[in-house]
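Many introductory courses stop at the sequence. We go one step further.
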Amino acid sequence: MTEILDTTLRDGEQTAGVSFNVNEKLAIASLLLDELKADRIEVASARVSRGESESFSHICDWAKKRGCLGRIEALGFVDDGQSVNWVADGGGKVINILAKGSLRHLECQLRKTPEEHIRDILVVLGKAASRGLEANLYLEDWSNGISASPEYVFRIVDALKDSGIKRFMLPDTLGVLNPFSTFDACSRMRERYPDLRFDFHAHNDYGMAVGNSLAAVRAGFNGIHVTVNGLGERCGNAPLAAVVAALKDHAGAECGIDEGRLTHVCKYVESISGIRIPDNEPVTGENVFTQSSGIHADGDVKAGLYANPLLPQRFGRERKYALGKMSGKANIIKNLDQLGISLTPEQVRLVTERVVELGDKKESLAAEDLPFIVADVLKSSHAVEKDHIHIVNYSLTLSRGMRPVALVKLSIDGQEYEASAPGDGQYDAFMKALWSIYDKLGKKHPVLTDYQVSIPPGGKTDALVSTAISWRDGEHEFKTRGIDSDQTEAAIKATVKMLNIIENLDISTLL
């Protein structure tokens, strides 16, 4: 069983611009331990600030009451016991001591010899034991140390392996490893020290933190460090959700994390950290379980051909089929089924054509837009063959300091007419040009009495705009609607519907 230590509240809080208050830290700690069932959480750095001390004490009090204080850890330093006292006074039981894992860091930063550093670490370990603390040891910059100064790394571990340290925690502090070098370095440690417990702490500077974590597990490491949403300094740490999924599916490694609660916890941390989850983030991203291609939807319908082991149900999600220019009939049918809408094959074809048309103008449509599209298509489709009037082309010009101008080419029963006119707005200019054609032909036209613009109910995207226009034609009042990604285009579509209604004198088509 692979241990998962989540360090969102310590290392993750080093993300630029992220700072959790006391209540937020306690809420996240509760989610990590109670909902996700993380084995351990690292929640603070010793001696950082008064707020950090207050947060640590609150979390320790909470954990003690719930009987899980041993799963709460804090980072401490080789500082002659000051960090030990900070952790113990705050109610903690576990300290993670940060020592130097490369000779370069030791000599350039601490300016000490290995013997001096070992002596200083032993002093801290002795004081931790005297205060009843369990101690783990970080070897900072271990990834460079094992490569450039392995004799130093072995000297440190040889000197400390029998000193009561429970876990040696080996970080890729600068994110320089890849899965191949991680496996080799971790295997080297495991072969030399088969009886020690090792944790691996990855950083994601090359985007390989997940792969490196798997390599460490394969090499025999006991624990992996992660953060929710990959929060952390620079490019962040290994993201919890992706690591958990990859451990199970690619390393055959079990861990205690409840996959079904991952999405909820990641979304919560997103909301209070202010760091958005990218749409294409594995497992938790908005688009992870969304198919866009019609071919993919068709394959899923026929035999689940485009499903992989990352089934959305594992993570409290559901598979979606995006609507846009790549949509095929299978996409439309899948979305209609989820909405409980049944259409004939011909109606599905018409709806598909409209979705593709709209998708050419915008990247995608929301599933919530579909009922609106269906209603618009079905209300107008029966009159398509009877339409006598079409807009052949139009041009709308808007220049600063000048009135908008519209140039309109209209076809009536195959005969084309053209006119231009200025207006108070682009649609007003369009209507003035249109009515000038009607005036020249001696044709009457209705009066616009109301104009409403809205986003389809439930829509979560700006892809659609609905324009509803009310008209009065003599004694008759009626309304036409147009849908498009552009407000003016939607109004023009509604206007063309009106023109054909009055041309056909078919009151049954009034909306």
